[in-house]
Known about the structure:
Blueprint: E1 10-11, E2 22-26, E3 32-35, E4 45-53, E5 58-62, E6 75-80, E7 85-88, E8 95-99, E9 103-113, E10 127-132, E11 135-140, E12 148-153, E13 159-165, E14 169-173, E15 180-188, E16 191-199
Antiparallel strand pairs: 1-3, 2-3, 2-4, 4-9, 5-8, 6-7, 6-9, 10-11, 11-14, 12-13, 12-15, 15-16
Amino acid sequence: SPNFEKKYDALKLMNTDLRAPNVYAISSDQSNVSIQAMPFSADSITIVPLGVNTTKQGWVTIKGEDIDNMPMDMNVYLRDIETGLYHQLYEDVEYGFFLGANKFESRFSLVFAQKDIRHQVNGDDLYYLYSFQGILFVGIKTPSDCGSLVSVTNLAGRLLRQYKVVGNGYHQFNPNLDHGIYIVTIQSQHGTKSYKLYFS
């Protein structure tokens, strides 16, 4: 069940190595668990909140490994609320993000979905950006369908790539960047927003 059950679940024991972040699921009764047995859900989307606890700031990378015995039509994502990203864990590609020394229990979740939900501009968000295998994907949903300017810079602020985007919907670009972290900024008459993305 979504609550902690001693017979099926295991409470999270925090790492003794302070250099390693702690990652755990959060049950419905707010228990931190390393193993959580859940019944198969008939809903199209199931969300499992995750906690990440770090004792020092730095880059964290997560990659899905050994995902077995899942239904063929089930997608498994790492959801990052801060960036709006659904990272597909089946594709064995690392997702990197920078965290300070803190406990994060409302930013990340595991999402099980019976459809591809990566390509969505959610709620009131005007933009949705993510990278996959070196390709930059830009989703735009502005009220006036106006043009936008997408800029890619390194962490020092040096402009590396720039693209003009016309029209709402999804657009993709191949910036041909080395692996690493970059700042992607999108500008339009509706304002400016920047994202920190990891290109692999």
